[in-house]
Specification:
649 residues; alpha+beta; five-stranded antiparallel beta sheet; five-stranded mixed beta sheet; 21 helices; globular
């Protein structure tokens, strides 16, 4: 059983929506007058009882409901560590120091120290104790899972047993792609290491491969010290008729993450072609200029579960062949490696990814993990290869545009569209394509609706039929710098402007956004003034000079600070602006807030041997009676063993 709370509300009695598999239920307050007849009122009463029973099933208190109705991106004031603020300013000075003269170094150091101390002394607002208690109690519950849906907005509450069952069904139950890994130490000759874990073995295997193939400065930067053990979690697909879960691997700071990021950056040019959509604005512009015959129809094709079905060995071979055509890879990046070397790097970065789920270890032996930096690259590379085969067989369509696994084409008739679907499904045995035809002259694609208008195409923002009238946006009462809230408004308006082919469509989306932000408690005057200023700016076209000026500036040094309040934030911003003008270098603050979704992330209890890294430690040595205090980014036991070896020698 699950409940999808799909709207942000100020109080639980306000408008909200609950999803029970594919059943959408809208609940209004008693004062709502949109139901005009007894039949609607009767149906509403029945659905209200059903919703109340479902939410009561999870035994949520008033304040727990209130916290969840505001959305997982809602932030509350949090205690701020003085040490954290001092460390942030110190890091900023280290980055700034090489750019400064000796005189400006002293000025910058003294000013940053003063700003840091002042910010530490300022007191932020106190969070409501009732809300903190409610969130704390929700966090401690081990019988439910609180997460976001795979698509769209909302808060999904699932029974923990059902969540685990669905996640197993969509991942580790497939023995062709996932195999269990034993925690038992394998038998080996010689003295076994004091500490053993499969993750430590992976680290040990990765390091010599990278050091042997790549130059030392690059290799050193790609070896992750004290890597973390990846874990599996899932996002419920509440938009599907049958409830399923999309498995995602939390892979940041894992043993091969840095290598995967580096390979993704270097090989990305090989994963695009003329059919790839790289920029949505350019793509929309191309659609507006395109002419379409009266008999033509618009068709979109989609690949089912593309990432899970990427053949890793085949895709690696495709990438390597392209990389070494005319020795491009070595010439482009001033390297001297072989095809075999690149294959080895790609294999260690993608294959046999180790992770933990429900206390058990697994390896993914086939497909690319959702969450791997190389996932989109390999998916795109494989699709590019499929498109090359279509061109070689003279089966490529005249108009064909693709973004990852979503493709848009135009066809002369339905029969041709079905024939091309058959061609796509025959071209690779592991992939299954589906097809969607335009309906009544309209076709949704990449967050917009493409609309036939005679021989030309119009576009506007796509709103799903199941949309509840809001977006997964930031609540105005969230403890976040107000500038970010203003920027969010402008971002949504800019998106609407880019996707709307005429002022009528843009006006319609502006009216919808006004309702959305009203439900998020944004002041009406703020929203209307922002819309008016945005339109005036677009009409007068006074944006070019501002963008050009900002592009010519050097990259700023950013100081990431926990947000306290608006007055403190503005004071720091003003002081850093003055310092920037004096030392001729841009220093800017960036404010972060702890969103409540961080409290509800599924957590895996991992063995201490691989879960004590990036720590400040106190260690009393039994060999030399020394008290050791320090910080290590490695696994703590590795630092302790290093000290013990130095003591013995």
């Amino acid at each position: 059983m699950f409940v999808d709370i799909s709207v942000v509300a100020e109080e639980p009695r306000d408008l909200f929506c609950v999803t029970i598999h594919q059943l959408k239920i809208l609940l209004f307050t008693e004062s709502d007058d949109r139901s005009q007849n007894a039949g609607e009122a009767k149906g509403r009463t029945f659905l209200t009882d059903l919703i109340v029973n479902l939410i009561d099933f999870f035994q949520l208190s008033f304040f727990q409901k209130l916290a969840l109705y505001r959305g997982l991106d809602f932030a509350l004031p949090q205690p701020v560590s003085p040490m954290e603020i001092q460390a942030t300013f110190e890091k900023a000075f280290w980055k700034l120091e090489p750019k400064l003269s000796d005189e400006n170094k002293e000025l910058a150091a003294a000013t940053l120290r003063s700003i840091a101390l002042t910010y530490i002394k300022r007191k932020g607002p106190t969070p409501p104790k009732s809300m903190l208690r409610a969130i704390g109690h929700l966090k401690k519950r081990d019988d439910i899972v609180i997460t976001r849906p795979d698509k769209g907005s909302g808060v999904v509450i699932l029974d923990k047993t059902e969540y685990v069952s669905l996640l197993k069904e969509s991942s580790v139950s497939d023995e062709t792609k996932f195999i269990p890994i034993s925690l038992e130490r394998p038998k080996a000759k010689g003295r076994p290491p004091k500490h053993y874990h499969p993750l430590l073995k992976k680290e040990k295997e990765l390091s010599p491969i990278v050091q042997r193939i790549l130059p030392k400065p690059i290799a050193d930067s790609l070896i992750q010290q004290g890597s973390r053990l990846a874990h599996l979690y899932g996002l419920p697909k509440t938009h599907k008729k049958k409830l399923t879960v999309r498995p995602i691997l939390s892979a940041t700071r894992t043993y091969n993450y840095k290598l995967a990021k580096w390979l993704d950056e270097k090989l990305k040019p090989l994963s695009v072609n003329d059919q790839t959509v790289n920029d949505i604005s350019s793509f929309v512009g191309d659609l507006h200029e395109m002419k379409i015959d009266e008999q033509d129809i618009l068709v979109s094709y989609d690949v089912s579960s593309l990432f899970a079905n990427v053949p890793v060995d085949e895709t690696i071979e495709i990438l390597v062949e392209k990389a070494f055509k005319d020795d491009w890879f070595n010439k482009e990046y001033d390297l001297n490696i072989t095809k075999t070397d690149l294959i080895e790097l790609l294999e260690v970065a993608t294959k046999n990814q180790l992770f933990q789920f429900e206390g058990n270890l697994y390896e993914q032996v086939d497909g690319v993990a959702m969450g791997s930096p190389l996932g989109p690259l390999m998916a795109n590379a494989l699709m590019c290869n499929i498109e090359e085969k279509l061109e070689n067989q003279n089966k490529m369509r005249v108009f064909y545009k693709r973004y990852v696994d979503d493709t848009l084409t135009k066809m002369p008739d339905v029969s041709s569209a079905s024939e091309f679907l058959l061609t796509l499904n025959e071209i690779h045995p592991l992939h299954s394509f589906t097809m969607e035809l335009e309906d009544n002259g309209k076709l949704p694609f990449l967050g917009m609706v493409i609309i036939r208008n005679g021989p030309r195409l119009d576009t506007k923002v796509y709103v799903k039929p199941t949309d509840t009238g809001h977006l997964p946006l930031l609540h105005y009462q969230s403890h976040v710098d107000v500038r970010y809230k203003h920027s969010l408004l402008k971002t949504m308006l800019n998106r609407a402007f880019k996707l709307s082919s005429n002022w009528q469509f843009f006006h319609q989306e502006c009216e919808r956004l006004k309702m959305v932000f009203a439900r998020l408690h944004y002041p009406k005057t703020l929203v209307e003034n922002t819309v008016r200023h945005f339109i005036e700016m677009k009409v007068t076209e006074n944006v070019c000079s501002k963008q050009q000026a900002s592009d010519e500036q050097d990259a700023p040094i950013r100081i990431v600070l926990p947000f306290k309040d608006r007055k403190s934030a503005n004071a720091v911003r003003h002081q850093l602006g003055d310092l920037s003008r004096k030392i001729d270098a841009v220093v800017q603050p960036v404010y972060t807030s702890q969103k409540i979704k961080g409290q509800f992330k599924p957590k895996e209890h991992k063995p201490p041997v691989v879960n004590q890294q990036n720590v400040v430690y106190y260690y009393k040595c039994g060999l030399c009676d020394a008290d050791c205090v320090g910080f290590t980014s490695r696994h703590l036991h590795q630092r302790v063993e290093e000290h013990e070896r130095s003591t013995i020698t």
